[in-house]
């Protein structure tokens, strides 16, 4: 059992955390500790020192309103709540201990708020994790995923059985080391990289606000759910969270409620070593409502009151700062970095069981806790059934709106939607592919109900504005142009949240291609979590000209070709741009990147929407028997150069095949027979040209082939001069081809 001295220490540590993060006007000390004790309370002198510490710091911090608890009645007997909370803690402890790997500290500290959310507040159907009108929950601090697995297990989700808990972090299990939405039904988004989750939650809340504004009627509210999140100090430190939360405040996402696990511990130790800002003031400045729950360990009524208040604030998101003790209940490791990312160890597990009075075997959930949570299965079924009846009535009264919403819910695209995409002939005027992209975006927005998106303050340059719609803003959430501001990383993660809200929501986001460096983390999560975001990336090469090497992507195309489950398109003209969009819209579990030109390009003979579907295809060929003298391969703006070089070589009597390699990944999916028809193995005379790094082209041109590209940074000059100086020319292609003869 905890000693009197350890109890006093725990009280002092808690008080220091409270004083460090601000105080309310009352300045009262919560009567609780991270340790259970049957001994005496802290001495009077110890309590006076704690109070003096709080009073000293009160003048240094702004006043933050604490949750008012006196008006809220507990909804469940406190003894079963205690038992349920400890069930969550020990499921996490036992799973981490068995795996000898994981993060037990967060689940132990966050169990009370998580219990109240999943047991008392959230609306969901555990037997249908994909019910549309469910509340969404995001564990932004994804390392604490055993908290979420324990909740899903108690709530009755089929995806997390007892055996799954015992297989935590093991090969093929449904309980991986960080939450994965594609692996475990009940997980909304994939989290782990800190800050991504809360940013995804902003996207989920945006989706709800947008759909509610578009489809709800005064007599029929069919879109009505909340997005909840738990984030930690690490999420707060990552810049992406500030980007996304700034937008959440600007947009007034009133159904976004985030719980900040304020335990002042990170991997390296106390956050005082690197993180001393006033989070409350920052979020208030971002336009959030802020509440402070001082007793996050046992203050159940404070947590309930905070949630009730947050729901009453409808014009802005709410941050509930919950001061907790990481590793609550562990006599020797609570409130320390040692409980953050490692198993407690056999002796400390036993000590924690004794400390919290937990007599049960590992992974055992007491029968009364099971019985208590079992109600969520019938209650969830009723919630969904009631909503389905409401939607059926809505469908009868508002058939057009219902059809659109159903398309978004199911992901089933309207019949013939692809016919809206523009087509071009060689006689059509040449244009930059960024402009041709805008034609496609606007065509799609007219026929695809869930199509929406925007740019990182570059809409007029990326050409991404939907002309038939206004801006999604706090007062006009029904509109479909999203203004992300200069926030690429947040933009990408918010778009992931939108894509993962409903199968038929198809978000796009845009910036200059080189600035994918700012949001690569979010783009990787798109690929990993199977979020079919469309990334519209303009200014794709040195062809952007005078802005110079800071803005000229070189290695970017190759890096995205290396990223799994990502389609990297570089279209050469209008037909290829339309073809790329056709694929991108249909690939709902794979993100697509479109690298688009700033400079004007011609509409080339031989290109087609159908050809793009193959990834690589022949646009011209004067050979016979599948035996050209040379194969010239290009992408984007350099496909024109390959075509011009082919004409020069043909005049000299050579047979030449010109191949567009618009998307390597799609070509890789084709049959061996098709690949042989485009790149016959007997023809080793191959030349590729692309105004980018040549990295990776070896697998296309083969060991004897030649690749023309740029393996250095660019320069500032007009585009034609840059192409000449870097050797991205017809002459260079012709010379390379002649080296084979």
TrEMBL record:
Substrate binds at residues 103, 340, 434, 461, 539, 547, 551, 598. Residues 20-48 are annotated as: Disordered. It comes from the Eukaryota. One of its GO terms (cellular component) is chloroplast stroma. Thiamine diphosphate binds at residues 143, 192-194, 234, 263, 340, 515. Its EC number is 2.2.1.1. Residues 431-603 form the Transketolase-like pyrimidine-binding domain. The active site is at residue 488. SMART domains: Transket_pyr. Pfam families: Transket_pyr (PF02779), Transketolase_C_1 (PF22613), Transketolase_N (PF00456). It catalyses: D-sedoheptulose 7-phosphate + D-glyceraldehyde 3-phosphate = aldehydo-D-ribose 5-phosphate + D-xylulose 5-phosphate. PROSITE patterns: TRANSKETOLASE_1 (PS00801), TRANSKETOLASE_2 (PS00802). GO terms for molecular function: metal ion binding; transketolase activity. The keyword Transmembrane does not apply. Binds 1 Mg(2+) ion per subunit. Can also utilize other divalent metal cations, such as Ca(2+), Mn(2+) and Co(2+). The keyword Metal-binding applies. One of its GO terms (biological process) is pentose-phosphate shunt. Mg(2+) binds at residues 233, 263, 265. Homodimer. This is transketolase. It comes from Arabidopsis suecica.
């Amino acid at each position: 059992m905890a000693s009197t001295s350890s109890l006093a220490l725990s009280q002092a540590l808690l008080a220091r955390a409270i004083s460090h993060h601000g105080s309310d006007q009352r300045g009262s000390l919560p009567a609780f500790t991270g340790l259970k004790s049957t001994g005496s309370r802290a001495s009077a002198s110890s309590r006076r020192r704690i109070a003096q510490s709080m009073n000293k710091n009160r003048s240094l911090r702004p006043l933050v309103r604490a949750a008012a608890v006196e008006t809220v009645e507990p909804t469940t007997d406190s003894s079963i709540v205690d038992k349920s909370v400890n069930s969550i803690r020990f499921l996490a402890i036992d799973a981490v201990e068995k795996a000898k790997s994981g993060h037990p500290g967060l689940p132990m500290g966050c169990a009370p708020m998580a219990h109240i959310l999943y047991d008392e507040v959230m609306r969901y159907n555990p037997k249908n994790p994909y019910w549309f009108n469910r509340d969404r929950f995001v564990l932004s601090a994804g390392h604490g995923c055993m908290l979420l697995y324990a909740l899903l297990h108690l709530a009755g989700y089929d995806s997390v059985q007892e055996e799954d808990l015992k297989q935590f972090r093991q090969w093929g299990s449904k309980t991986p080391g960080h939450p994965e939405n594609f692996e475990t039904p009940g997980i909304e988004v994939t989290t782990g990289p800190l800050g991504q989750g809360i940013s995804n939650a902003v996207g989920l809340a945006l989706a709800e606000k947008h759909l509610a504004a578009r489809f709800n009627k005064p007599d029929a509210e069919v879109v009505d759910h909340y997005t909840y999140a738990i984030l930690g100090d690490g999420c707060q430190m990552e810049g992406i969270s500030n980007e996304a939360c700034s937008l959440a405040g600007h947009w007034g996402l009133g159904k976004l409620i985030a719980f900040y696990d304020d335990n002042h511990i990170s991997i390296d130790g106390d956050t005082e070593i690197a993180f001393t800002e006033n989070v409350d003031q920052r979020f208030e400045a971002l336009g959030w409502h802020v509440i402070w729950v001082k007793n996050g360990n046992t203050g159940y009524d404070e947590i309930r009151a905070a949630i009730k208040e947050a729901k009453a604030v409808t014009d802005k998101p709410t941050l509930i700062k919950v001061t907790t003790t990481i590793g609550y209940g562990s006599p020797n490791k609570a409130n320390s970095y040692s409980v953050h990312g490692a198993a407690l160890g056999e002796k400390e597990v036993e000590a924690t069981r004794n400390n919290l009075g937990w007599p049960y075997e590992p992974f055992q959930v007491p029968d009364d806790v099971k019985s208590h949570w079992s109600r969520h299965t019938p209650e969830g079924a009723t919630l969904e059934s009631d909503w389905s009846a409401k939607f059926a009535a809505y469908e009868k009264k508002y058939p057009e709106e219902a059809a659109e919403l159903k398309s978004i819910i199911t992901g089933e695209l309207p019949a013939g939607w692809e016919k809206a995409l523009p087509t071009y002939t060689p006689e059509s005027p040449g244009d930059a592919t960024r402009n041709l992209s805008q034609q496609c975006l606007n065509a799609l927005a007219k026929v695809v109900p869930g199509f929406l998106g925007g740019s990182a303050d570059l809409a007029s340059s990326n050409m991404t504005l939907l002309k038939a719609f206004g801006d999604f803003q706090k007062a006009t959430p029904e509109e479909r142009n999203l203004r992300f501001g200069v926030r690429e990383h947040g933009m990408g993660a918010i778009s992931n949240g939108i894509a993962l809200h409903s199968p038929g929501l198809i978000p796009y986001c845009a910036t200059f291609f080189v600035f994918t460096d700012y949001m690569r983390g979010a783009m990787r999560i798109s690929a990993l979590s199977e979020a079919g975001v469309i990334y519209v990336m303009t200014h794709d090469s040195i062809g952007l000209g005078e802005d110079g090497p800071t803005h000229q992507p070189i290695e970017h195309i190759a890096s995205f070709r290396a990223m799994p489950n990502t389609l990297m398109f570089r279209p050469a003209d209008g037909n290829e741009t339309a073809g790329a969009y056709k694929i991108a819209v249909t690939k709902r579990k794979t993100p697509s990147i479109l690298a688009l030109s700033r400079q004007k390009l011609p509409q080339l003979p031989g290109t087609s929407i159908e050809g793009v579907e193959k990834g690589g295809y022949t646009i011209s060929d004067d050979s016979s028997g599948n035996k050209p003298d040379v194969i010239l391969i290009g992408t984007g703006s350099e496909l024109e150069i390959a075509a011009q070089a082919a004409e020069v070589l043909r005049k000299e009597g050579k047979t030449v095949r010109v191949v567009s390699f618009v998307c390597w990944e799609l070509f890789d999916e084709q049959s061996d027979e098709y690949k042989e028809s485009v790149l016959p193995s007997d023809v080793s005379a191959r030349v590729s040209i692309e105004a980018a790094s040549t990295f990776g082209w070896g697998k296309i041109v083969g060991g004897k082939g030649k690749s023309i590209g740029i393996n250095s940074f660019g320069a500032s000059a007009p585009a034609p001069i840059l192409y000449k100086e870097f050797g991205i020319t017809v002459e260079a292609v012709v010379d390379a081809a002649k080296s084979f003869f």
